[in-house]
Every structure is written in C-alpha cells, then in structure tokens.
Design brief:
By secondary structure, the chain is an alpha/beta fold. Helix content is about 30%, strand content about 25%. A seven-stranded mixed β-sheet has the order 5-4-13-14-15-12-16, with helices on both faces. It has a five-stranded parallel β-sheet with strand order 7-2-1-11-17, covered by helices on one side. The protein has a three-stranded antiparallel β-sheet with strand order 8-9-10, with no helix packed on it. A hairpin with a 5-residue loop joins β8 and β9. Its main location: cytoplasm. It holds the Pfam family FAD_binding_3.
Length: about 375
C-alpha cells in the first residue's frame, strides 16, 4: 500500500500547474521532484500575459500561500478590454477593471506568464526542479508505482508520476492514446515596444489591456505586457500548411509582412501597424486541441494535469485550470491516506470539469474565428 505521507512523487514538466502542485505538497511537508527539459528558468520566453480568475487560478495560488505575492506583481489595469471596428478603429465594445465605471463583476488581474512562473519557482525548496532532465515516457509497473524514463536513457521509479508536460506530453500515453489535433485555426504572433513612436496610435488603442478587431475569419489581438511590450496576434482559419501553399517562408519577415498585408487589406492603418511595422520576428502558432471529451480509465501510479490532460484552444482558461488541477491534486494527496485514493479523487473531480470546459472552448473558437 503506497501511503501519501511517504510517497515519492515526480512531476514531469515545470509549467504553472506542475509548480503549484509541488508548492502545495511542500507546504504540507511532502516530498516532490520536478523534472524539466529546459536547461534553466530563462531558457526561453514564457509567453504572453494571463488573467487569473478568482475561482480557479487565484484559488490555486491562495492554497499555495502565494495570493498576496501574486497581487503585488499583477496588473489590475490590464483587465481593460476593447473591441474596435477593423476599418475605422472606432470602439464598439469596452470593459473596464473592477472599481472603474462600467467594470465587470470579477477581478481578474493580469500577470506576465514568466513573472507568475518565477513566483512559483521562487517558492520551492532549492533543488526541487531538476533542469535539463527531459522525460521520454512513463511506464506503470502494475504494483501501483510508475517508472519514469528520461531521454538520456536513465530511469527512476516513483509512487506517482504526474504528467504536467504540456500539449505533447510524453507521460500521456501511459493513460491515453489520444493525440492533439489541429483545430483549423492558426495564430501569427509578433510584437513591438510602445517606446516605438512610429505609430503611437496603436499603443493608444491598446491602452493598458487588450485590443480586439475582427473581420470574417480573421481576428487581431494586441495585448499589453509588462515593461511597455505589446504582443500582437492575428488568428485565421486555414489549412495547417497554409504557408507552403502560399509560398511564404516563415523565417522571412518581408514575405510574412506581404502575406499579412493582403489579409489585412482595408483595415485601419493603426491596426495594420500591429503586424506589419514592428521589429520582432513572426511566430507561426497552429492551434491544437485534444479530442473532446478527453477521459481515461484510472491507471495506478500515474495521472495528468493541465494541457497534458485537456489541451484546448487558448481562450483565457487553460492556465487557470492548469493551476487549479495542480492545487486539487496536491490537496487530494494531502487529504487521502493512500496515493491511489488521492489520484482517483482528483480525476473524478478534474475529468468532468475539463471535459465541459473543453467543449465550451471548442465552440468558442468556432464563434470567434468562423
């Protein structure tokens, strides 16, 4: 019988969900090791800004004892959101942060993903994260334990392996044959700094939060991050190999600008600037999602959380629910006497919740990018 008090827990992946799980386990005196393929915390950019919701992301940070530190880093003003006409750039809809006139009822402060990850990493005991340890797979051993396999050839056995290793999880095959599928929508990401004065109109349009414009099956997002940086995205429905068909080299800025210029023909100049005049590279991001619903029969010794469990279109809920998954799993491991009972309790809570959420996100993506 594997008791949670003495369990050897391994988390594959040093993302938000895995880190908050590790933090809560350590708060309760439990042992945990995180294996991350990246070689250091700063090995790559951690992506855009996140709005943390009270009942999910913020609830997880509260359980981790980090909510006050989150609020000290977050940007409440980043909740401002506006939708503008793609031709005139005139405001069509607008939302303000709580406390402002016309504000919504929920407080969802923004924080850069990198800052949030840094907050979680700093909260862990030194040596918790083993950097540069890429997981290659996981094999349940039939006795309630699981063998974690690393790409360099080593193996280690644990009472519980948690697959928190994202969309292309190497742990997922231990419980499920599901594989992410292309949604039919691609994002092109770029960005600029608002110190770039060549077109201050866009910085004004974005304001402290998020700008949205759409026309047909094309949608533009511009989102302010910290330090004056604005990330911009254009989303459109297209075959995954659109660039091959169009003869566009994804690494050629001029070719990308020419393609996007045609797609944004007739759009307001301030909006076109978001994609066509910045100094940053373009990143092609086809959107993938796991089948809906994605569920599995319980396998002793292994489970999943976050994108590994329920990869869905990025409509503002994925990171929040990854954090909630991590908190729920850790709290179950603290509450239950046996590891297997804890994992069953977690999966019985997480799987129905994530299935319904994934369904909503799939429908939302069809509505946003028809």
């Amino acid at each position: 019988m594997n008791l949670t008090q003495d369990a050897r827990v391994a988390i594959a992946g040093g993302g938000l969900g895995g880190l908050v799980c590790a933090r809560i386990l350590q708060l309760h005196g439990r042992s945990v090791t995180v294996f991350e393929r990246e070689t250091s915390p700063d090995a790559r950019s951690q992506g855009s800004t996140l709005d943390l919701h009270p009942g999910t992301g913020q609830a997880a940070l509260r359980a981790a004892g980090l909510l006050d530190r989150f609020h000290a880093l977050s940007r409440p003003e980043g909740q401002e959101w506006r939708k503008v006409d793609h031709v005139t750039a005139a405001a069509q809809e607008q939302e303000w942060p709580p406390g402002d006139e016309g504000a919504g009822v929920e407080d969802r402060p923004e924080i850069d993903r990198g800052h949030l990850r840094g907050l979680l990493l700093d909260s862990l005991a030194p040596g918790t994260v083993h950097w540069g340890r890429a997981v290659g797979g996981a094999t349940p051993l039939g006795d309630g334990t699981c063998r974690l396999e690393f790409t360099e050839g080593a193996t280690e056995d644990f009472d519980l392996v948690v697959g928190a290793d994202g969309a292309w999880s190497r742990v997922r095959p231990a419980v499920s044959e599901a594989f992410p599928e292309y949604t039919g929508v691609t994002l092109i990401e770029t960005g600029f700094d608002d110190s770039d004065v060549r077109h201050p109109e866009l910085a004004r349009l974005v304001g402290p939060g998020t700008l949205v414009a759409e026309s047909g099956s094309t949608m533009l997002f511009a989102q302010r991050n910290s330090n004056g940086h604005i990330r911009t995205y254009v989303a459109f429905r297209t075959p995954q190999d659109w660039h091959t068909t169009a003869g566009v080299d994804l690494n050629d800025r001029a070719a990308m600008r020419a393609y996007l210029s045609k797609r944004l023909d007739g759009w307001a100049e301030g909006l076109r600037y978001a994609l066509l005049d910045g100094d940053h590279d373009f990143v092609n991001r086809p959107l993938f999602a796991l089948p809906v619903p994605h569920v599995w029969e319980h396998v002793p010794g292994v489970t999943l959380l976050g994108d590994a469990a329920h990869l869905m279109p990025p409509l503002g809920v994925g990171a929040n629910h990854a954090l909630l998954d991590g908190a729920d799993l850790a709290q179950a491991l603290v509450a239950e006497e046996r590891v297997d009972d804890a994992v069953r309790a977690y999966e019985e809570l997480m799987l129905p919740r994530s299935s319904e959420l994934a369904k909503q996100c799939a429908e939302g993506l069809k509505h946003m990018v028809p």
